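INTERNAL AUDIT FORM
Audit reference: QA-55
Scope: verify that the stored structure record matches its stored sequence.
Auditor: D.O.
Record contents follow.
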Amino acid sequence: MGIPEGTAKPEEQRLGPVLRRRDQVQPGTTDQRLLDTEGDSEWVHTDPWRVMRIQSEFVEGFGALAELPSAISVFGSARTKPDSPEYEAGVRLGRALVEAGFAVITGGGPGAMEAANKGAREAKGVSVGLGIELPFEQGLNQHVDIGVNFRYFFVRKTMFVKYAQGFVVLPGGLGTLDELFEALTLVQTRKVTRFPIVLFGSAYWKGLIDWLKDSVVAGGKASERDLLLFHVTDDVDEAVALVTKEVGR
């Protein structure tokens, strides 16, 4: 149903908060389009509909995680092998964080993320996985007790920061670096405060730290004090002590 036959097209149309005039006036009303069962399904791919899906992801994430105890987000590569020293370090880290009174949040995938979730579960703590819809990963690992899957990276990133008191970053690839620099930027710009960031594995992170010192800081693109935004360690107990001290536990 559109404009009744014989009725002149209005010059002005109000659709909720939206005003349309002249050639931009649409036939029919919002209720008509809602209740009309005919038509294609292209509307589910429009930007206004995406906004609703984004909103729903925030609501679901907030609802699932609102009652978490103090937590630490642990990042690392999905490609870390279960028989590697890095995997074992992730298990020990997850266990030690729970013993220190924290829940453990990871990206919920395999590799280093699975290791930290496994350690948290074995220590009978809260093991959280925040997954992401990707074409080449297989959902949440078996050690996740509370899991939320997201479509949008930026919604997932918000959850990592909002519900954690700090980050521990195991060796990882581009996704891990993305999370690391997101956190560093938030702390540097004081969007978050009292947020410890610990890099685990000094040999792995050495090249990155040298580049930050010798290129970024030396070139005037960051200040010397920005290098104090993170800690580096090879010791699980020290990593836990660093996050515990900085969050005032």
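Auditor finding: record pair retrieved intact. The mean pLDDT is 88.
Action required: none
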